[in-house]
Design goal:
Number of helices: 10
Number of strands: 55
Structural class: alpha+beta
Radius of gyration: 62 Å
Shape: rod-shaped
Largest sheet: 10 strands, mixed
Distance between the termini: 151 Å
Strand content: 35-45%
Strand order of the largest sheet: 49-48-47-50-51-46-52-53-54-55
Length: about 900
Amino acid sequence: MMHFHFRKIVEKRRNHWKILQKIMVCLFLLFTLSQLLSFNISSVRSQLSNLLVFAEASSFARLDDIDPSGWFYQAVLYNPTDNDVVVTGLRWWCNASAGVDFIDAMRNAKCYDSRYFSNLPTGWASASEDRTRWEYPNGTISLTIPPKEIIVTWIEVPTNSRNNNVTLTTYYVEACSGSQWISSPLYDSHGGHDKITSTVFRADFNLTTDPNDEKQNITQHNLETPEWLFNEDRSVIANLSTRARLIPVTSSRNTDGIDYATVNVTLPSGWSYVPNSAYNPYDETITLHSGDGIDTLEWDLDNDVYRYSDNQSMAQNYIEFNVTIPCVPGICNFTVTSAITSQMESWTTPENQAIYVAVKTPPNATFSCSPTTPLTGEDVTFNATCSYDLDGYIANYFWDFGDGTNATSVIVQHAYVDDGNYTVELLVTDNDGISTMKTRVKTILNRAPVPSFVTTPKQLITGQTVTFNASASFDSDGGIASYKWDFGDGNLTTISSSIITHGYSSSGNYTATLTIFDNDNFSNSSTLILTVHRVDVAIVDVVVPVNKAHIGQTVDITIVVRNEGTVNATFDVVLYANDTVVETRTVQDLMPYEMRNLNFTWDTSSVAESGIYQVRAEVGEVQWETDVADNIGKTVNIEMDSELLNIWDRMNSYAIPIGIGSVMIFSVVLGTILIRRNKHAVTQETLPSKGLGIFDTLASEVIPDAYSVMIVGDAGSGKSVFCQQLMNTYLKQGKPCIYVTYDCFPSEIRENMKTLGWNTSKYEQDETLRFVDCYSSVAGVTHQNKHQVEKPFELSELGIALSIAVEDWTQKSTRIFLDSTVPLFTRLEPAKVAEFLQDRTAKIKGENGAFFFTIGKGIVEPGLARRLEEIVDCVIELDRHEKRVETERRMRINKLRGRRFHHEWITFSIEQGKPAISDET
């Protein structure tokens, strides 16, 4: 069994080997056949190169007198690539059914195109195959075809003419490029007859030749050449209306020309005839036929075409028309079919000619730009990367931005100096030298001018000349044409200068607006809030304790001044006795709404004689002050007596003061005894609270809940310090406090209390202390506090701010301090302020709180002062007296509803490191 298996394997392998042998024999036979056929058709089928070869005209009689029986055929070479193609060989074949004797292989063929051919070709004939070949072998010529170009040339086929039109011939052309022979298709041609009139059509686009200038004398074989044969423009540009001209060229072995011809010009698919564009010099009939997207022109050629007589070309009939070529690059052809009737026995010859044309496409130009609506001075990106060329590439970009500038890159950036509409042009040129332009209108927006101005001086005063300077304003894309000023007081002014001056007649806050207009009439505005302050000082009172004095006696005189303006004031106060200056005192930095007592001493020893002397005070000149009516105080008459006084008179003059002093000493001693006795008589609950300094000696109890206190005193008497000490004591006791500021910033109060040993930060952090800032609005600066009043002199606003500040403390017996009411009484109607204080007192007491407010002595008229004393529960009076060496301060209680108190003055001092207000007794 093993032996049998081995024999099967051997037989199987033998069968495989036989099959392989048969395959190899088939391949060898196929290779041999291909080699045999290669001589005949291999070159025809070899199409490895991109070069395209065509043979265009059917036939055309030879023109010279050497061999009038010769025939011409047209060779068309087209290079579809983007690089030059070099043709190094050319040959053409002709087959004839009549045999080689019809084709005269022994005679020389000639190419008349001297651009490329200078020698005669070589010939070859096959009698058995009735085939003849003429050739410029590979390497004997060098014909360069540029990219996308077509070259038309004519070649000759020598014949022994036969008067037999049934002789059939075929022909084709080959060109060698890169050692490859590329073949044209196979074409049919007629043989010849005496009656045949041969006509071919020259095609000329863009009218580069003159049909009436065609004559060229050709008398010898090697002399002048008929250049009109190959001087044809066969290139067209797509998407354009192109003018085409067809020129019929007729030859015949007889002496007659044509009698009549019907010519049909069929355009390639997609080509369009431009209506009414056809022209013929003899007004021959031209009819358009259209169907299935194909346009055909029928031309009835009934005028004789000059034939070749005396071997000359001639001016001839022709047809012109316009066509529009679609954007399809490459080679295409339209056909010309004709039925030509000769004048000799009306013999009709059919002709069929393909006319090849190289179509070049223009580049497509397109671009984008961003941003869409740019401003002047802003870079605009122009991008042409989407431009393209169907049959090549774009070789050049050229930008014209419409403002006199240009660029040559595919992507460019450009900024416009001025606004407006600009026509931007992009010109792209492809590698064939064809250009296309794309145009867009770009709108550049104007940049608004930038306004800016400052005022000089920084602090503005009524009546002062203020300089408004807008020199820092600018327009980045032009210039500023005008400046419009609105000063906020009803004054509007427009000028061309950047600097202007203006003055304000009234104090207050003004919104100054500058609007600038540029050279394009665009505008922009800027505003400043200006606070215009008022300078106004006044002499409130002139206090003279006596109305009689003796010469040589010193008289103490107190002059009360007040700053009724909105800025600190420094000024001189002059004391006069009659017209004599007694003394001049300078008031330094008197704050707004602050009052100050000036103590003068008049030494009357210089008085010359007795009499009535008028004592008055005047404020010296204060710059920018507009209200000077209150700068002169009241006049006080003092009677001066020059007589010497006797001892009794002298004693009598001191009797009253001595008596009063005795009574006071007695009263103090008696009062002290009574106080000590009362202290032993009261219970522990009525003992005065400690920690309030001098106040402990004035009141038997601390200020209770649901209570109101008015603190009255001169400027500098210690009202604010006293309020701050009270507040600090209440904060230590855990009672929440609110401090309303009208005389200084909350930050100043914090620092002042810290200097006196009281730190409020921990109370503010746990929100048992809150400041309501009214002073920042008065001073015209930005608020830095949580609670503030934007309109501090609108009492409803103040009431709302207090309600907000205390809204979550209504059950905690809040202590509210209003320091001070002086600005309210000096700016508003006093009766309304008093009414507000009465309403606020009732509201705070109703919430079980305590209300403290301070008021300057002499600020309100006596009747209203008594009314305020009636509405409050407690009145505390503070006093400040300037001695020669030091300042003496004292305090007393004028009212303490429901409590025992002592009305005597108690002297106190304000010292750092001790309870702020300490008892000196």
